[in-house]
Structures are given as structure tokens and as C-alpha cells.
């Protein structure tokens, strides 16, 4: 439903709101460099050949894939009206974690986690029944996505604590890029976290009810609470 994220591989999206995907790309380069150094030290004569004929581990490639996804989504969020303030790659103090994107606008605060899962379908699975509580869970390409949902909920909690203002709505979002979305429907909410693709996300952000609060002051407060990663 959106253009191929691979089309934007290259430099990160930089701006006053932060450098989208910067921390993920740094980790990718660190891991890649460490692997290259190790192989060249262990195999002085054949190290170059080994590197040429082998790929980086999947765990290393995942960091590059994540950086590209954040960069792509940052470009899409740049299409938001100028009534929005957007921050990218913000550090959560006291942890090694970060928040991919925080957008503040007339419809409230949006905490957005970009996920680039090529050709995998996000799905809502509902369990329970007449005699058991209803239980909702996220599946991505058939795999368990509970950790993804929990991660966004934790980020929303951090933002809520930083604002300490219950009058400002805070919406958590898992935004999947290059996923295998169905032609009809596809988006859903699981455990209060919205699951959508970039174009639909922007539509919802701009069409959601307007809330009376100071966007610039809220942006300044969150920028201080969550520094650039």
C-alpha cells in the first residue's frame, strides 16, 4: 500500500527533530566493523575473500533494516501539515532503548514504532469465548508479536509520565512498512496499540478529533525529556 522502503536507502533524514534511524545505523556499522576486524585478524590471508563470499549475520542485518524503515517513515511523516511537530530517534533516559518517532499535533501525541517486515502480514488474533475472557494478540507472518506491542505500550507510558497531563491524548502505533497488507481492511488495534501502514497512519493523525492544548510547549517538553539518540 506504500512505496518500497528500499528506494530510500542512503543517508538518514536529518533535521531539528533528530536524525531518523541514526542509532540503529550506528549499531549496524559497529557490528559490521567488528565482524570484519575479527575475520581479518583470524584469517590474515583469506579474510578479504571470506568477507566477499559471506553475508553479515541476520542479527546484524536487522539493524540496517530497522534504520532504513525509520528513515522511510520519517520521509512520510514529513508530509504532515505544519501544525505537527515531529521528532525522530529519541533516547529513553536510563535505558538503552529509544523511540523511533514522536509526533505532536492538533490530534494529540503519537508515539510511533517503525517496523520493516517485508512481505509479512500483521494480523489480530482473538482468543477466549463465552466462558473465558477475550484475549487479543498480534501475529506477524505467523509469529508472535507480543513483544512489539509491549514495547510500544512501554514507550507510551514513558511519554505519559513525561507529560503528566491526562488531557492530552497519547496514541501508540506500530507502523509496518512493506508488509503483506490485504486489499481490504487490514489495520486494527491490539491492546490499545494501533497497527497500520504509513499512508493510513498519516490519514488518521490528520483526521482525528482536534484537542485543545499547546502543541509547541508539549513539543519542547518532550524534546527535553527524550534527547536525540
Outline:
With 229 residues, the protein is α+β, with helices and mostly antiparallel strands.
Descriptive notes:
- The protein is an alpha+beta fold and 229 residues long.
- The protein has six helices and nine strands.
- The model is unreliable at 6-15 (pLDDT under 50).
Salient structural properties:
single chain, globular, 6 helices, 3-stranded antiparallel sheet, 38% helix, 6-stranded mixed sheet, 229 residues, alpha+beta
What's the alpha carbon Rg, rounded to whole Å? 19 Å
Q: How is the largest sheet built, in terms of strand order?
A: 1-2-3-7-9-8
Distance between the termini: 30 Å
Give the count of helical stretches.
6
Helix and strand succession? Answer: HHHEEEEEEHEEEHH
Percent range of helical residues: 25-40%
Based on CA inertia axes, which overall geometry fits?
globular
The portion of residues forming beta strands comes to 25-35%
Overall pLDDT level: 87
Please identify the structural class as seen in this structure. alpha+beta
Number of strands: 9
Ranges where pLDDT stays below 50 over 5 or more residues in a row are: 6-15
Largest sheet: 6 strands, mixed
Q: What is the topological layout?
A:
Elements: H1 22-42, H2 47-53, H3 58-77, E1 85-91, E2 98-105, E3 108-116, E4 122-129, E5 132-140, E6 143-144, H4 146-163, E7 170-177, E8 188-190, E9 193-196, H5 198-207, H6 215-225
Parallel strand pairs: 3-7, 7-9
Antiparallel strand pairs: 1-2, 2-3, 4-5, 5-6, 8-9
Helix pairs in contact: 1-2, 1-3
Amino acid at each position: 500500500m506504500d512505496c518500497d522502503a528500499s528506494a530510500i536507502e542512503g543517508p538518514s533524514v536529518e533535521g531539528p527533530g533528530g536524525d531518523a534511524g541514526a542509532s540503529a545505523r550506528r549499531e549496524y556499522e559497529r557490528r559490521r566493523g567488528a565482524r570484519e576486524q575479527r575475520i581479518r585478524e583470524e584469517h590474515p590471508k583469506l579474510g578479504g575473500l571470506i568477507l566477499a563470499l559471506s553475508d553479515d549475520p541476520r542479527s546484524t542485518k536487522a539493524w540496517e533494516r530497522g534504520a532504513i524503515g525509520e528513515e522511510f517513515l520519517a520521509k512520510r511523516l514529513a508530509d504532515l501539515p505544519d501544525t505537527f511537530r515531529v521528532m525522530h530517534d529519541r533516547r529513553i533516559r536510563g535505558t538503552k532503548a529509544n523511540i523511533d518517532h514522536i509526533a505532536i499535533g492538533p490530534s494529540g501525541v503519537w508515539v510511533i514504532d517503525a517496523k520493516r517486515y517485508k512481505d509479512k502480514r500483521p494480523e489480530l488474533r482473538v482468543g477466549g469465548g463465552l466462558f473465558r475472557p477475550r484475549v487479543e494478540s498480534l501475529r506477524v507472518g505467523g509469529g508472535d508479536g507480543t513483544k512489539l506491542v509491549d514495547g510500544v505500550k512501554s514507550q507510551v507510558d514513558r511519554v505519559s509520565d513525561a507529560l503528566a497531563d491526562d488531557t492530552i491524548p497519547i496514541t501508540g502505533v506500530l507502523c509496518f512498512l512493506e508488509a503483506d497488507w490485504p486489499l481490504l481492511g487490514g489495520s486494527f488495534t491490539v491492546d490499545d496499540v494501533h497497527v497500520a501502514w504509513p499512508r493510513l497512519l498519516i490519514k488518521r493523525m490528520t483526521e482525528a478529533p482536534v484537542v485543545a492544548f499547546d502543541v509547541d510547549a508539549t513539543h519542547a517538553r518532550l524534546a527535553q525529556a527524550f534527547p536525540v539518540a
